[in-house]
Amino acid sequence: MSRGDSGRVRLGTWLGTASLLAGTLTLGAGSVSAQAAAKPFKACVVTDTGGINDKSFNASAYKGMEDAHARNKNIVVSYLSSQSSADYVPNINSFVHQGCGIIVTVGFLMDTATQQAANAHPHQKFAIVDDAPQHLKYHNVLALQYETDQAAFLGGYLAAASTHTGVVGTYGGMEFPSVTMYMNGFVAGVRYYDKVKGAAVKVLGWTPAKGSCSLASCGGTGTFVGNFTDQTAGKTIAANDFAAGADIVFPVAGSVGLGSVVAAQQAGRGHSIMWVDSNGCVSDAADCSWFIGTVAKGVEASVRDAVLAAASGKFHGGTYLGTLKNQGTALEYGGIPVPAAIKKAIAAIAKGIESGRISVNPNNYPVK
Amino acid sequence: MRLELRGITKRFGTLTANDHIDLTVEPGQIHCVLGENGAGKSTLMNVVFGLLHPDDGEILIDGVPQRFANSGDAVRRGIGMVHQHFMLVPVFTVAENVVLGFEPTSRLGRLDRARARQEIRHTSQQFNLEVDPDAIVENLPVGLQQRVEILKALNHDAELLILDEPTAVLTPQEIDALMAIMRSLAASGKSILFISHKLKEVRAISDVVTVIRQGRVVDQVPPTTGESTLASLMVGRDVTLTVSKEAAAPGAPVLELDDVVVRDDRGLAAVDHVSLRVHAGEILALAGVQGNGQTELVEAIVGMRPVESGRITLGGQDVTGATPRSVLDSGLGHIPEDRHRYGLVLSLSVADNLVLNAPRRAPFAHRGTRNLAAVRGNAESLVSRFDIRTTSVQAPLSSLSGGNQQKVIVARELSRPLQVLVASQPTRGLDVGSIEYVHRQIVEQRNEGLAVLIVSSELDEVMALGDRIAVMHAGQITGVVDPSTSRERIGLLMAGATGDGHE
Amino acid sequence: MSESRRRWWHRLTTRSPLLVTLDALILGFVVGALVIITTTASVLDAWRAMFSSWAAFAHACQLTADVVGAAYRAMFTGAVVNPRIFWHAVTTGQGWTLALTPLSETLTYAAPLIIASIGVGIAFQTGIFNIGANGQAILGGVAGAYMGSLVHLPTVVHLPLTLAAGIAGGVIVGLVPGLLKAYTGAHEVIVTLMLNYVVAALLIFTLLSTVLQQPGQQNDISRTLAPSAQLAPLFGAASGLRVNWGLAVAALVVVFAWWFLERSSLGFDFRVTGANPQAARASGINARAVIVLVFVISGGLAGLAGIVQLAGTTHYLDGGFLIGNAGIGFTAITVSLLGRNRPVGIVWSSLLFAGLGVGGRAMQAATGIPLDLATVIQSAVVLFVATPVLVQEIFRLRHAAAAGEVRLATSGWGS
Question: End-to-end CA distance of chain A, in Å?
Fold first, then answer.
C-alpha cells in the first residue's frame, strides 16, 4: 500500500470529523431556538475601548448591569466591547438587531453613534453613561451625568488637610471636560481649605481658567497624559510630583493612575494617591493602603437603576444628574486613616455643597 | 577500508535520484564516479556521508552493514568528505579549523594549541600535505584551503575520502598537486571516492570509473577508456568534444578597455589598470583562476560596478559608468557567471525569462501594457530554435534542468541585436551535451561578425574557444597569447608569472 | 470510481496552495472550538463528569455541540446571512434591510481592507516589507479630512479631490522610507514601523488643533466630512445598509492591481525585482526607481484605504482612527500574506477577515463568547497557512509532484 493510499484513510477520518462538526452546528441551532421561548429582558452594554475589565467606567457600567440582574433575575446581561471608535455604530446596531430591552453605551465618545441609533430606532431604549448635556435630542435616550466636581471638592479638602509637605498634585488622562471637572473641583477644595484654615497648600498639575466649569466646558491649563492607558506616564508624572515636594497625587486618568500607585510605593510611606471614579479599595484592593480616598462617580448605581426602570417599564428619556445629594458622586475613604475631625468637617462641607451654600467654583476662592 | 553500496535507492517525491546503485571501493583504490550534472552523484555521496538516508539498499563497510543517522556517524566510521564548497571558518587558523569539533583539550577544557599543531604537522608529513598550521585560512590560496579540508578529514582518521568535484576551483598546477596527494593517499591504503564530470582528470587519476546517468549505474570501465566513449556513456549519445571552427576574420575593435581600474566590495583594486580590445568576428578568451578580478571586470563592463578610472567604449561609444540598461541597449549581450543570481528569475515562466532584459521593447509591450501574446510567440520560436526542453513556455523556469536554463539565457541574449557578447563561465555546471551546444552557438555568432569575450576558469574551454587568450592574475593581464600556446605556459601566467620574465 | 472522480480525489489529497489554505481554515475553526470548550465553565464541568456514566458523556458531547454550534452559527448568520430572516424577506418582501445587514457589514469592513492589503501585497511582491501601511492610511485619512471637511465643492469635484488627497497623504508617508531606502539603504522595516508612531501622534496633534477639530468640542474629534465628500451608501441612505461606494473603489483597485501585476511593464519590473533583485539589476531595471515607485503605489493605496474608511464609514476622525485593533494597515499585512499577495487571493482573505470580525461581534452579542475568538481563529488560520508542512502532515496530503510550493513569506528580512 502506497503512502497515498494510507493518506486517504486519514483524510477520510477528517472528513468524517468535519461532517460531525456540521451536524453539531445544526443540533446547536435547534437548542438555541428552544431557549428563546423564555422571553427574558435583555440588557445590553456597549463598552468603550477599555473593555469591561478596565477597573473604571466600563467596569462600573457592567457592574451596574449585573447588579440589576441580581435584583431582577429576568434581566439577562450581554456586552460588546468596542475595540476602536469605528466599532461604536456596528456594536450598537448588533444589539438593536438582538432585540435588547435597553442598550447602555459608555462614554461621551459614543454620543454621536448613540444618538444616530436613537433616531433610526425610536422604539429602542438607550442610556449613555457620562454624556455631555447639550447634545441630547431624543426622547428614548437617558443621559447619565455626574457633577464630579462636588466630590472632588471634598477630595481636595481631604488632600489639603492631610498633606505634610503643603504640596499636592493632580493630572488628567486627556483634556476632556469630564476629566478637568474633577481637577477643577479638587483645586477648589484645596483653595477652600486654604481660605478657612489660613493655609497655603499648593496644587501641581491644574490651574483653572476664569469662569465656571460645566460638563460642556471646563477649561484651564495642566498636565495630561494624552490617553487613558499609559501607566508608565502615570508613574513618571507622579514621581515628578513627589520629587517636587508633593505627598498626595490625584490622577484623573483611569488605569494610568495605577502607574502613580507604583510611584507612591517607590517613594515610600508618607506618599499616597487619591483614586478616581470607582473605589480604589475595591477595584484595586491590593493597593488599598496607598489610597487616601476615592472621588467616586456613581456609575454603577445609576446604570443599575436605569436598567431596572427599563425592565419594569418605567424608563424615561432625558437627563439623570449625579450629585452628592443623590449619591451620584461621593468621596469614599481609602486605606489610610483619616482623623475623625477631618471626616466631620468634610461631612459638614458636603451638606454645604448640597444646599448650595458652598460653591465648588475655584474662582470664588483666593489663590494662595 | 572496503566500502560497498548495494542497491542504494533515493527518491525525492516522484524523482528517483539514485536507482539501485551498486558500487564497491577497494582499499587503496581511487574510484571515480563520473556523470553529468543532475545524474545523482552528489545525492549518492550525501547518502554515503550520512547526510541523506537511502529509501532502499545497504551500505557496508568491510562487509558490515551500516546505518548512519547523520554525518557524525559516518565520520566515526572513517569516512571523510571534502565538499565542493569548503566548510572552513575563514578567520580561524589552519590548526583551529582542522581540530574543529574534535579539539584536543587540556584537563580544564582549554584548547591545547600545541598538541593540535603537533598533530597537524604529523599528518602533513605523513601524506606530503605541506601547510602552515598557524596560517589564517582566508589568507590561503584555494588549493591550500582544499588541502586543509583534506587534512581535516585525515585528522579524523578517515579511511575513505570523498572528494566532490575537487578540481573546479584549482589552477592546472594546483590540480597536478592535488593528484599527487591523491596518489600518495591511495598508496598509504586510503580509499578515495572521486566525483567529477571532467574526462581528462578522470582518466588521469582513477583506478576504476563508474559512470552514472539519470540515477543509474550505466557501466563500470577502466580509466584507459577513450574520452569520447566516456562522454557518450555519460550523456547517452555520441558527442563531439572538440570545437570545430575556422580561423577568425577579425574586424574593427568593438569593445575597448583602456587602463580600467575597478574596486571590489572591500575597496581593493580588483581590476588593476587593465586594457583589452575585442574585435568584431573574434573570440577573446579571458583565462585565470577564479577570484583574480574577472568577475569585477565583467561587472564593470555591463554597468553593475562603478569604474574607478579608465575608459570603456562599446562600438566607439563611451559606456564608462553607464547603467546596465543603457549598456544592454547599446548592443551588449551578457551571459552572467552566476546565472541563478544574475541571469534568471526561477519563479517566473520560461517566456518571461526570455524577455527579462527587454520587457518594454516592441512588440513585447505597448504603452506600459505587456503584449503577452507577443511574449509567448517569442518564447515559442526561441524554444524551438534553441531546442530548450520544457513542458510549456509558461512553465516556471525552476522546472527546467540546469542545461536548459542556461539555454534560456543564451537564447535570450543571442536573439537580441548585439555588437558584443560577454559570456562568463558560459558552461559552468553544464553537462557535456549542453557544453557542446553552447560552444557551437558562440562560434556561430563569432562567424557572423559578433565580438565575443569569454571569461572562463576552465583551461580546456579557453583553449578550445579563444582566438586569442588573455590571462588575468591578481587584477592584471599577465599576458595575451595565441591558443596554440602550451598549457604549462598558460598555467604559469595564471599563477602570476609575467610574460616578460620567462621569455 | 470513475476517472473524473478519481482525479477529483487526487486533487483533494495532493498538497496545493489552495488546499492548504482551506485546510488551514478548517484547523482554525477547530482551534476556535477548543478555545470555546476550554473557556466555557459549563462545558468543562460536563467533561469533568464524563467518566461517571454514559449519559454524562453523552451530555458533555451534546453540550459541547450546542455551545460551539451556537457560537459558529451566530458567527455565520452575523457575517453572511441568517437564512430564517432572509427567507422571511423573500416570502413577505419585508425586512430586507435586516436580511442584508450582515453581508453589508462584512463588505463595509472588507472594502478598505482590500485596498490596504493590495498595497501591502504589491510591495511584498517586489520584496519590500511595507509595515507602515497603517501610518500611511492614517495620514491619508487626515489629508482627506482636510480636503473633505474644510473645502466646499460640488460632489463631482469634491469627492475625487478628497480621495486624491487621501492618496497623496499615503504617498507622502510612503515616500519617506522609499527615498531613505533608495538613497541611503535604510531598512524599510525599521523606518516604516517607526513612522507609524509618528503618524499616530500627528493624528492626535491635528485633531486637537482648532483647524480640524469639531467646533464646540475639546475632544480629539474632527469636523464631519461634507456630504459632497462622502462615499454614499451603495443602496441609498434610506436602505439602512452601511455598505458604500468604497466597495466600488475597492473593486477598481483590484482590477488595477491585477492589470498592474499581470500585464504592465512596470509591474513586471516589480515582480522581477521581488523575485530576484540581482537579476533585476543585471537586466537593466533601475532598482532605485523601483523602490521609490513601490512606496508611492503601496503608500498611495494605503492612503486610499484610509480615506475610504473615513469617507465611507466613519465620516469623521477621532483619536482612535485606525489605532489598535482598528489598524487595518496592520491587518493588511496578515491579509496580504494569507492571500499570497495576489489581488484575487487578497479579496478572499479580506472577506474572511472582515467576516470573522463582523461575525465575531454577532457571536458575542448572541452568546457572550468574547469577540476575541475571531482574532484567535484569524491568527490560527494564518499560522497554519505559514506552516504548510504541518497542515500536510495533519491531513496526510500527498506531496505535490511539481514545484508549486507554498510560499507565504516573501524574500527574507535582510536585504
Answer: 94
Nearest to C282 among B14, B304, B348 (CB): B304
The confidence score (pLDDT) of residue A133 equals 54
Residues 26-85 (A) with a CB less than 8 A from some CB of C: 26-29, 31-32, 44, 49, 78-81, 83-85
Residue range B240-331+417-503 in CATH 3.40.50.300: yes
Question: Which residues in chain B are contacts of C16 at CB distance < 8 A?
Answer: none
| pLDDT the model gives residue A255 | 83
Residue C53's pLDDT is: 86
- State whether residue B348 is helix, strand or coil: coil
Q: How many Cβ atoms from other residues are within 10 Å of residue C344's Cβ?
A: 12
Asked if the Cβ–Cβ distance from A94 to C73 is below 8 Å, we say no
Q: Are C260 and C267 in contact (CB under 8 A)?
A: yes
Residue C218 CA to residue B393 CA, distance in Å, equals 65
Instruction: Provide the β-strand partners of residue C244.
Output: C233
Do residues A324 and A353 lie in contact, with contact meaning Cβ atoms separated by under 8 Å? Answer: yes
Q: Which three cell numbers stand for residue A280?
A: 480604589
Residues in contact with C243: Cβ distance below 8 Å, sequence separation at least 6, in sequence order: C103, C104, C105, C107, C108, C111, C233, C234, C235
Residues of C with CB under 8 A from a CB of B: 259, 263-266, 268-269, 271-272, 275-276, 278-286, 399-403
CA dihedral B346, B351, B356, B360 (to 10 degrees): -150
Cβ–Cβ under 8 Å, residues A202 and A156:
no
pLDDT band at B499 (very low <50, low <70, confident <90, very high): low
By C-alpha distance, the chain C residue nearest A117 is C240
- Kindly list the domain boundaries of chain A, sorted by start residue: 37-146, 148-296+338-364
At residue A107, the pLDDT reads 83
* Residue ranges with strand state E in B379-484: 420-424, 451-456, 468-473, 476-481
* Phi, psi angles (nearest 5°) of residue B132: -75, 120
Which residue intervals of chain B bear CATH 3.40.50.300? 3-235, 240-331+417-503
- Count helices and strands (H / E) in chain B: 17, 22
Reported ipTM: the value is 0.82
The arithmetic mean of pLDDT across residues A185-198, rounded, is 95
Q: Do C98 and A91 make contact, defined as CB atoms within 8 angstroms?
A: no
Determine whether the interchain pair C282/B345 forms a contact, defined as Cβ–Cβ distance below 8 Å: no
CA dist., res. C59 & res. B413, Å (int): 73
3-state DSSP assignment of residue A143: strand
Q: Say if residue A338 is exposed, middle or buried (CB neighbours under 10 Å; 0-12, 13-18, 19+).
A: middle
Q: Which candidate in A91, A97, A100 is best for mutational testing of the C interface (most C CBs within 10 A)? A: A97
In this structure, the number of other CB atoms found within 10 A of the CB of residue C412 comes to 8
Asked if the B3-235 domain carries CATH number 3.40.50.300, the reply is: yes
Q: Does A148-296+338-364 match A37-146 at the fold level?
A: yes
Neighbouring chains to C with at least 3 Cβ pairs closer than 8 Å: A, B
Residue A298, helix vs strand vs coil = coil
CATH code that applies to domain A148-296+338-364: 3.40.50.2300
| Per-residue model confidence (pLDDT) at position A3 | 41
Q: Does residue A71 have a pLDDT over 80?
A: yes
Q: Distance between CA atoms of B144 and B136, rounded to whole angstroms?
A: 11
How many other CB atoms are there within 10 angstroms of residue C150's CB atom?
Answer: 14
CATH 3.30.559.30 at A37-146, yes or no:
no
- C361, A90 in Cβ contact below 8 A? yes
Listed by start position, the domains of chain C span 109-347
- Mutual angle of helices B142-155 and B172-187, in 10-degree steps: 20
3-state helix/strand/coil string of C28-51: HHHHHHHHHHHHCHHHHHHHHCCC
